[in-house]
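Example 3.2
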Amino acid sequence: MAVFGALFYAYHGRLRATKKMQDTMSLSQAQKKAFRSIGHHLNPVVTVSENGISEGVLAELERALSDHELIKVKLAVPERDDRAAILDELVATSRAELVQKIGKMALLYRRNPKANPKLSNVQRFEGHHGRH
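Structure, written as tokens:
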């Protein structure tokens, strides 16, 4: 790994997932299909660059998942293995579920029972399922 590798491993020690964080939800295939349909129309709200995972990225990821539940993340990292490592770390740290990953884009979901219906992509597009 290039310079990015050193940054990733420097953060890795602080970002290790606890037992509580490892308890993830499991989405059915039907739920994933509905979320992919909603996610298709979303723009990325979090971008991770070659600088890797920072406190700012984690704070924005936490805010976005709390507000929107379903978000698109852009991984602006050229190496496929580095992108996979970053994505694994983001999913573990945020306690989110990976819905889909295509190239440099990933779709993440974390349920928020107190989500604002005006901000939640899941509640706003409920019943959308790809139809306009």
